[in-house]
Structure formats: C-alpha cells, structure tokens
Amino acid sequence: xxxxxxxxxxxxxxxxxxxxxxxxxxxxxxxxxxxxxxxxxxxxxxxxxxxxxxxxxxxxxxxxxxxxxxxxxxxxxxxxxxxxxxxxxxxxxxxxxxxxxxxxxxxxxxxxxxxxxxxxxxxxxxxxxxxxxxxxxxxxxxxxxxxxxxxxxxxxxxxxxxxxxxxxxxxxxxxxxxxxxxxxxxxxxxxxxxxxxxxxxxxxxxxxxxxxxxxxxxxxxxxxxxxxxxxxxxxxxxxxxxxxxxxxxxxxxxxxxxxxx
Length: 261
Known about the structure:
Elements: E1 5-11, H1 14-17, H2 19-31, E2 36-40, H3 43-52, E3 59-60, E4 63-64, H4 68-92, E5 97-100, E6 108-112, E7 124-129, H5 131-139, E8 143-146, E9 149-151, E10 157-159, H6 162-173, E11 178-184, E12 203-204, H7 206-214, H8 222-234, E13 239-243, H9 246-249, E14 256-258
Parallel strand pairs: 1-2, 1-11, 2-8, 5-8, 11-13, 12-14
Antiparallel strand pairs: 3-4, 6-7, 9-10, 13-14
Helix pairs in contact: 3-4, 6-8
C-alpha cells in the first residue's frame, strides 16, 4: 500500500528574520494540501535578544555555545516569541497549527552533546522522535510547528540545530509516510558562486558533494546542512530539496535536489 505524502519544511536564514517574507511564506505554507510539519530556527533574533540583555553571544565554527543563561534566552525566543508568532499567523491563514518544543509530549528526546574538542554547553544531539504522537496530530489535521529546543528527560532543556531536528523528524516519520524534506532559506539553492544568485546547482549526490567540498563551493554553514540532508536520505527520507520560499508553491524552476546516487 502506497504511503501518504508528508511534507516537512524547515525555514531559516533571512526568511524568518524578514516579517514580510515570513508572512508570505506562511500564507503559502498554509495552503499546502495534506499533512505537513514546519520546523524553524531563529538564531539572529536570539542574538539580538541576548545582546539587549547584556549577554555576549559566543559562536564557534558557526554554532552557538549555549551556557545556562543562553539556554534561557533561546528558549524564550525560539519556543516563545518566534514559535507563537508563527502559529498565530498560520491560524490567521486557516492552518490549525500547534507550536511545540521537543519537551512537549516528549516529541524530540536528546542528550547534552559530549565534549570532544569543543564544549558547546547545553547543545543537544537528538536520540529519538515521538512519531506516534506527531502522527496523532497529523491524523487530526493539526500541523506541528517545532522550534529548535529539545530536552533530555531529566528536566534539562537543550539548544539543538534546527536542521538536525527537521532531518530527524523526517527520518522518524518516514516509517509512516512518504516523506519529502524541504530546506527553505533566502537563496534559490546551493550556489556555484555566492556572487551569482542564479548559479544554482540543480542536483547533488554523494560523489559530487565531495567534489564541491574539495573545490570550496560547499563550506561553512552549508556543510552541516548538506550532511543532514544525506543522513536523512540514507535513513529513509524519500526526497530532499533546498531552495527559497517558492519551493512551497512548487512553481519555481531553480532549486537544488539531493540524492544518494
């Protein structure tokens, strides 16, 4: 029996920082037929709030170091302000959304990242997804909206990369659905040249991925994103796309697809 299609979309970058762009995206997302899940980041807003509170954000290799004070800030921003603003807008567009952190209904269980070379503090690495509960929501026409906060089931909230969360949710739900994973940000896809916004690489497989890394085309923050994409494909996700907000409308010709071969 053919599985039902489930679209799982992660929104980040300047799209989430631009109120007009975010509203436009959410309006299109709300019109998507069938079950869907949204995952969002919000690092820029967390940095703004941290600075306003007199905290100096610390980043290493593009990742936030999460001390005790920072856990409180990112929880307020991700699970509070941004999550509820997104949910409220989706309700405005007649999409019955429910905002969630990983702690809610034990949806995303994680552990504090083990210290190797760098101590990222209260950063979380995902252990398990509560697919049964998420499926109950989907079957009742409720759209889950996940922020980038998880928990360890010992009372500790953890800051977890939103790209990782969306990949793990897609992997977990692939047991029940035909999952399509979309990464939406301000660019049209993975670019050959950052100076040319239309130089989109239409397809990347594992072989060309290594070539693009060696050539320095894929670097910095794009590296963990692509790693999460291939991890998802290897573990059962049916399709992965990277592009701008027009991905949701399915009317764009420029985007990047990823496959194992």
